[in-house]
Design brief:
Elements: H1 19-32, H2 40-43, H3 51-62, H4 73-86, H5 90-95, H6 102-125, H7 135-152, H8 174-179, H9 183-187, H10 192-195, H11 205-214, H12 222-255
The structure holds a DNA duplex (21 and 21 nucleotides).
Length: about 260
DNA sequence: AATGAGTACAACCGCAAACAT
DNA sequence: AATGTTTGCGGTTGTACTCAT
């Protein structure tokens, strides 16, 4: 039997949070620390929210150090690069953008970056019809964008058992390395052709990303480049390892 | 001024991994 | 080892707001 959804739990509120609820949650975290979300409604008197809702509110809104407001061009660039590497792994991407939450980045991608890239693709590839300026066309374009977006990374991300990568040691990056392990299985399904996006000036996103890395314009943002390169290296090593593991797994039944 | 479409983003849901018993 | 619970993630929805007609 499945667990009842958060919203249908007896006596618990849902919908937008009030200032009072925020204050209660902040007070709870200050006293008990993060975690134990399932006990919040019991320990924080007057806060009638399920643990899941509390965690989300804290992580995405109340947690100290959360950066709000517009994304900088450097952040845009890093998100695009990391999304190319990681797909829709918003939490991983968020870990590399200080003060940004996975939810915020996900929303920003869906609202701005993803559309921007795909519009560039559309404008580059669709030379067939002159603009009619009608709303229908805009609507159609919106629909197309949605479809294209869905084609970019079709696989539903799944977590796999974490392991230490070859040559890696127990350090701060271990968690990141482990988190990267599912990537190979995802990338294996979508063909290169399916994943090609067009970016500024109409060149494909892979070329653009490489260009971005080595242009003068971006030399000032060494930190962002470093992050990108770091991920690229991690990705390559983790792919190799997972591939080895996967190959072994597929043959194992025949060996025993 | 009314209204419908588009946009932004907070919040919710379902699922699966991780953890506890 | 089996089972139940909690946590974290990505996808989706709801709604307030803006803008064009």
């Amino acid at each position: 039997m499945g667990k009842a959804p958060c919203s249908s739990m007896a006596g618990l509120e849902r919908g937008p949070w009030t200032a009072e609820e925020d204050a209660l949650l902040i007070n709870y975290v200050q006293q008990h620390g993060e975690g134990n979300w399932s006990k919040v409604s019991k320990k924080a008197a007057g806060l009638l929210r399920c643990g899941k809702s509390c965690r989300l509110r804290w992580v995405n809104y109340l947690r100290p150090g959360i950066k709000r407001g517009n994304f900088s061009p450097e952040e845009d660039d890093l998100i695009i690069r990391l999304h190319k590497l990681l797909g829709n792994r918003w939490s991983l991407i968020a870990k590399r953008l200080q003060g940004r939450t996975d939810n915020e980045i996900k929303n920003y991608w869906n609202a701005h970056l993803g559309k921007r890239l795909l519009q560039l693709k559309t404008s580059k590839t669709d030379h067939s019809k002159p603009s009619t300026g009608s709303k229908n066309k805009e609507k159609q374009q919106h629909t197309d964008t949605k479809q294209d977006n869905a084609n970019t990374f079709l696989q539903k991300p799944t977590r796999v058992f974490p392991f230490l990568l070859p040559g890696s040691s127990a350090n701060d990056d271990t968690e990141t390395l482990n988190s990267l392990t599912p990537l190979w299985s995802d990338h294996a399904v979508a063909s290169d052709e399916e994943q090609i996006l067009l970016y500024e000036n109409g060149s494909d996103i892979y070329t653009c990303l490489d260009d971005l890395l080595f242009t003068e314009e971006y030399h000032h943002s060494i930190m962002f480049d470093k992050v990108y390169m770091e991920y690229q290296e991690l990705l390559m090593s983790s792919e190799n390892h997972v591939r080895t593991q996967a190959d072994y797994s597929s043959f194992k039944p025949f060996l025993t």
